[in-house]
Amino acid sequence: MSRALPTCAVVAVGLALGGCQSPRATFEAAIKGDPAKPYLGMTTDQVIACAGNPAGRYGTTSGETLVYHYSGAGPVPSAAKEKPGKKNPFSKSKSEKNWDCSASLSFEGGRLARVTFAPREVVSPYAEKKDPKTGEKVAVTPPPPCNFSLPNCSGR
Q1: In a domain? residue 2
Q2: How far, in Å, CA of 29 to CA of 31, rounded?
Q3: Which residues constitute the domain of residue 118?
Q4: Whole-model pTM?
Q5: Cα–Cα distance between 96 and 102 in angstroms, integer?
Q6: Phi and psi at residue 71, in whole multiples of 5°?
Q7: What total number of domains does the chain contain?
Q8: Residues 62-108 pLDDT 10s
Q9: Residue pLDDT, tens place only, 8-45
Q10: How far is residue 99's CA from residue 117's CA, in Å, rounded to a whole number?
Q11: Is the confidence at residue 1, as pLDDT, over 60?
Q12: Is residue 110 assigned to a domain?
């Protein structure tokens, strides 16, 4: 009886703390590890050489961040850009709109320091919509999670 109470207390604390994260994210992080780890330390030029030109880039106080839009495993160089002609400067080409994930690669001192990636269509776990047939509120299906790799880069 004296061991049961401390054991229950430890289990209760573990469950309470474990409930703070989504089980899927916790499981994937524990099993897969950091998908960007093989690329950390690469230079900006090395990343651009194997991932292609970024969709955006901006300077930060500690370095630079490259933003890639991609579908699939990770950013890869795209086909050659269309030749400039008479087109609307405010419209985007179809290839610029057709992506599922976004990755921000942060460089500090010219070297890749961290990578964050997320789905394009982020949905709150509390989001609801009306079912057109029944009129009832139903949960919105979240997009599939994103993966990250640089398929054309050789990891260290």
Answers
A1: no
A2: 6
A3: 24-76+93-156
A4: 0.63
A5: 12
A6: -130, 145
A7: 1
A8: 899 999 998 887 777 665 444 455 555 544 454 467 888 999 999 99
A9: 555 454 544 444 445 555 555 556 678 888 889 999 99
A10: 13
A11: no
A12: yes
End-to-end CA distance of the chain: 53
Give a yes or no: residue 61 inside a domain: yes
pLDDT digits (tens, 9 = 90+) for 98-151: 888 999 999 999 999 999 988 888 888 888 888 888 889 988 888 888 888 888
**Which three-class secondary structure state does DSSP give residue 13?**
helix
Name 115's Cβ contacts closer than 8 Å, sequence gap at least 6.
35, 36, 39, 40, 103, 104, 105, 106, 148
Phi, psi at 36, each rounded to 5° = -90, -10
Q: What is the pLDDT of residue 156?
A: 53
148: Cβ contacts below 8 Å, ≥ 6 apart: 35, 36, 73, 74, 101, 103, 115, 117
User: CA nearest 115: which of 77, 153, 144?
Assistant: 153
**Closest-CA residue to 117 (of 52, 72, 63, 85):** 72
- The whole-angstrom separation of Cα 13 and Cα 19 is 10
Give the number of residues written for the chain: 156
* Residue 90: C-alpha distances to residues 63, 95, 100 (Å): 29, 15, 21
Q: Is residue 135 part of a domain?
A: yes
